[in-house]
């Protein structure tokens, strides 16, 4: 059997009882380590499970799926995923490959940032499309997500912004070499996200868009979340300009751009996180 | 300490290890029983936890919050909630009340239908606003959610439809009596939802809206899900007209109206659930 197990968001004890039982009995257990990370790290997981884990980086997950699935029709193999297993396309693809090979599979769900984001007090039913904000570089500054924020705000919906994670990215120089070299891992912080969002504002204004037609301005409320579900979780509600100066500590971070008009209960709850 | 603990979606073992440890040590543990239900039922939970639970129905949760929170500043009290604690407004309100009373609180996240819906293979990032479909009666047929489906479809987004749950609803006759009498519990099925959605179509057509301007038609693909996360989980993908004839068994059910154009990977995955 092939098991795809969500680990939730915070620490080792956020695994479900069902998930833990499966992890203990499996012959091989892989820990997917590039679409998300747990605040606690691999060693804490291994200690808690009482077994070793095989780290599954991008190369292994995307090109070594056959290796991971090998023998899963006669043995038990698990792939552990931070959050919920269906949070990333890669994992859906894994199930399809298992299906193709005639390998039986089971999914163990868990919390994902998509529902745990409710911890800031915004109603989950009032979120529009979720967006991803990628790291920009000197030449590549995609901003198509701006239109989605605009659409959500026009419909008085909140926007959850998932922030970029770069783990085991080959350096540009090494791409032409035989031996790959990797950049240090990077996890976008809420302040880095706010900087990029404000840069888009400048561009939109230079295109002649008036302030009242912008998706947001420097004064718009936004909510920064870090390490959701972990005991060190932090939530800050402030203007987007203030968010640039915020420091929410270690990764992972997420940013929410709330709807213009909040429900009174949302208003009251979010106020808890204003400075 | 007041604990708000998500139980996830399937069976007793879907609680997290963290949640289980807290449940075992608490002085009082309430099981919220009117915004959602677990397929397994209260007795199975009590057996698994090795302790008794106090059933918290609508009256207790909405009017007896003070009773539930009583003593939580010196003792440990937990409220268990199916799915994730932030899935319903009522639970957010609970945290605010605890705050007001100076009671420390902790939230234990878990899977909710909002992320577990990904099990049908549709990408979670491509969902628009979630809607709720209420039971209609002879005189009350609200359909404002139709516009949200339309907006989602216009933007090529999927719509998750949460289906009505009626638990411990007083009968109309008993409202004027001293002794309340309650209707049997009802849980909307995907076929009941499809019937109401098709009735809205008739109305829209009678208002002169052309087929190409409708949010969906009888032929639109929809996906029915039942008992997500439980081993008896069922997923069916068919036209909305066919969904009227479907039988997905015991509650809870959810319905998804996918975007018009699916990603190839979504297409491939959803095809697994077509008859």
From TrEMBL, chains A, B:
The keyword Methyltransferase applies. InterPro entries: 4pyrrol_Mease (IPR000878), 4pyrrol_Methylase_sf (IPR035996), 4pyrrole_Mease_sub1 (IPR014777), 4pyrrole_Mease_sub2 (IPR014776), Dphthn_synthase (IPR004551). Residues 1-177 form the Tetrapyrrole methylase domain. It is an enzyme of class 2 (transferase). S-adenosyl-L-methionine binds at residues 9, 84, 87, 112-113, 163, 228, 253. GO terms for molecular function: diphthine methyl ester synthase activity. Keywords: Methyltransferase, S-adenosyl-L-methionine, Transferase. It catalyses: 2-[(3S)-amino-3-carboxypropyl]-L-histidyl-[translation elongation factor 2] + 4 S-adenosyl-L-methionine = diphthine methyl ester-[translation elongation factor 2] + 4 S-adenosyl-L-homocysteine + 3 H(+). It comes from the Eukaryota. GO terms for biological process: methylation; protein histidyl modification to diphthamide. S-adenosyl-L-methionine-dependent methyltransferase that catalyzes four methylations of the modified target histidine residue in translation elongation factor 2 (EF-2), to form an intermediate called diphthine methyl ester. The four successive methylation reactions represent the second step of diphthamide biosynthesis. Belongs to the diphthine synthase family. This is diphthine methyl ester synthase. It comes from Hermetia illucens (Black soldier fly). The lineage of its organism: Eukaryota, Metazoa, Ecdysozoa, Arthropoda, Hexapoda.
């Amino acid at each position: 059997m092939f098991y795809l197990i969500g680990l939730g968001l915070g620490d080792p004890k956020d695994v479900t009882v069902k998930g833990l039982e499966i992890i203990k009995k499996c012959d091989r257990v892989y820990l997917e380590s590039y679409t998300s990370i747990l605040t606690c790290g691999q060693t804490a997981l291994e200690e808690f499970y009482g077994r070793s884990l095989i780290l599954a980086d991008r190369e292994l997950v995307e090109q070594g799926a056959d290796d991971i699935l090998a023998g899963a029709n006669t043995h038990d193999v698990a792939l552990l995923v931070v959050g919920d297993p269906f949070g990333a396309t890669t994992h859906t693809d894994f199930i399809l490959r298992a299906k193709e090979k005639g390998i039986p599979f089971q999914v163990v769900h868990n919390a994902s940032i998509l529902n745990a984001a409710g911890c800031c007090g915004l109603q989950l039913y009032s979120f529009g499309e979720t967006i991803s904000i990628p790291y920009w570089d000197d030449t590549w500054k995609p901003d198509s997500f701006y239109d989605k924020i605009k659409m959500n705000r026009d419909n008085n919906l909140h926007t959850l912004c998932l922030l970029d994670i770069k783990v085991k990215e080959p350096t540009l120089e090494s791409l032409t070499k035989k031996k790959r070299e990797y950049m240090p891992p990077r996890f976008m912080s809420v302040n880095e996200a706010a900087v990029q969002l404000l840069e888009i504002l400048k561009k939109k204004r230079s295109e002649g868009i008036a302030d009242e037609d912008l998706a947001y301005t420097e004064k718009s409320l936004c909510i920064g979340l870090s390490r959701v579900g972990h005991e060190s979780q932090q939530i800050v509600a402030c203007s987007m300009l203030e968010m640039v100066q915020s420091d929410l500590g270690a990764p992972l971070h997420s940013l929410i751009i709330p709807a213009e008009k909040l429900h009174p209960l949302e208003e009251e709850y979010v106020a808890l996180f204003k400075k």
